[in-house]
Amino acid sequence: MTLTGKHYLAGTWMSGDSTFMSTPASGPAREFSVGTPALVDSAARAAEAAFESYGYSSRTERAALLDRIADEIDARGDAITEIGSQETGLPEARLIGERGRTVGQLRLFARHIEAGDYLDRKHDTALPQRTPLPRPDLHLMQRPIGPVAVFGASNFPLAFSVAGGDTAAALAAGCPVVVKGHGGHPGTSELVAQAIAAAIEACGVHPGVFSLIQGGARDVGQALVQHPLIRAVGFTGSLGGGRALFDLCAQRPEPIPFFGELGSVNPMFLLPHAVTARGATLAAGWVGALTMGAGQFCTNPGLAIVIGGPEADAFVAAATEALAAVGAQTMLTDGIADAYRSGACRLQQSDGVRDLLTTSCDLREAAPCLFETTGKAWLANETLGEEVFGPLGLVVRVSAFDEMLALARALQGQLTCTLQLDAADNAQARALLPILERKAGRVLANGFPTGVEVSDTMVHGGPYPASTNFGATSVGTMSIRRFLRPVCYQNIPADLLPADLQVCA
Ligand code: NAP
């Protein structure tokens, strides 16, 4: 596969005014065109033009496009894996798995829209004789919102990037997409864009339905979220970046929804009987989840809360030993490795925090770190509840179950909360669950939150700062709702109703 280093703008590969060099973890640095607000404007206009046909296309046509994109990605599988691994430092096996998830979710959305339940079609038939007022004929159906902006995530170069979950959900809904590629993997982005371009051509869809503008400059993302033709934004990334873009969306003359998936420490509550019965096993499992993918998962369980005592000592000792055996791993970008070191340093210098394990390493690498603190110190310092993106764990030893409850109540919004429990812990779990379900989009027992199932039942979101919109998920079929809005059709003649309503008129 040949890389052009260009943007893909509604069917045409285009250069900008300047270039940037990629910074791969291995392999050659490559030259890519820097995005510009002018390119964003052209892409958004083309997306709006495409919406005139694509927004009214049949579900069968859109399902065929999604299936074809999946096929075209698979056809380029080896090349995507090779450059993806070079650019991100992620192992090839991980990228092969992630490609499976990516094409799997494209095909899942194809089947989801074919089934049609997502349209929420409802009909209140007219009651002309009703007194005191007659009832009109009322149809309800979900309609696509228009062009959607997607920010490729650094930590999922395939499953949450150019043809990732946000793009799949938007295209399934009937919304054209303008992607702002992540600067950490521009070559991977281009190869996936080539796959989408081939699918668009094969399916005869309006070319404006998809554009990829590479990054390289901050004004690209800002211009994208502020463009008047963009109707919603899907984003996965940092709290700072997400918040800045969210605020820009809210400040527009016509504000639009910003679906940001930001930070989370994914607390894990270790209940006493479980710790006594299997503390060492829990420690080993925790260390595995904490260090998977160099800890660069939104669902990384960075916080473990345990009641102090000999069982907690044994859990901490086992976790420290297991973590010490895990070496340094390559991070996605130099910036992320740098942010990891700063985050570890911040924890190390916090009052009441004790080092259990810290090691230094090279610029693009991260070595696992483990710290511990008390419930009292954690409750007194809200920065201890902030995400450090990477293989870092913080154990909070609480003095008693009441302090565990206090800590649960003090948590910020989370993507996930985990309970490790045995049957004899049920009374305490029953007290924690009503608190935790108000804090997180997903509550789980006796497992680890990494490894997010893509399904009808998944919720990947949560109260702020886990996400900027706690009513939404960015993973699973329900994520399509972000790009739909309900329309009520009152007394509209049957033959003028949208085709999807005519079948039930
Ligand atoms: P990021 O810095 O938030 O960047 C994500 C995307 O947003 C990039 O395309 C970036 O463009 C753009 N962006 C960020 N701030 C912007 C602003 N003020 N104006 C316009 N565009 C802006 O995230 P990242 O590069 O993926 O990683 C940095 C940190 O984010 C990590 O260290 C980690 O803390 C966090 N992170 C969290 C998650 C999670 O799931 N919770 C996932 C990934 C990363 P440019 O690249 O052009 O700046």
TrEMBL record:
Residues 31-326 form the Aldehyde dehydrogenase domain. Transmembrane segments: none annotated. Pfam families: Aldedh. Keywords: Oxidoreductase. PANTHER family: ALDEHYDE DEHYDROGENASE-RELATED, SUCCINATE-SEMIALDEHYDE DEHYDROGENASE, MITOCHONDRIAL. This is Aldehyde dehydrogenase (NADP(+)). The lineage of its organism: Bacteria, Pseudomonadati, Pseudomonadota, Gammaproteobacteria, Oceanospirillales.
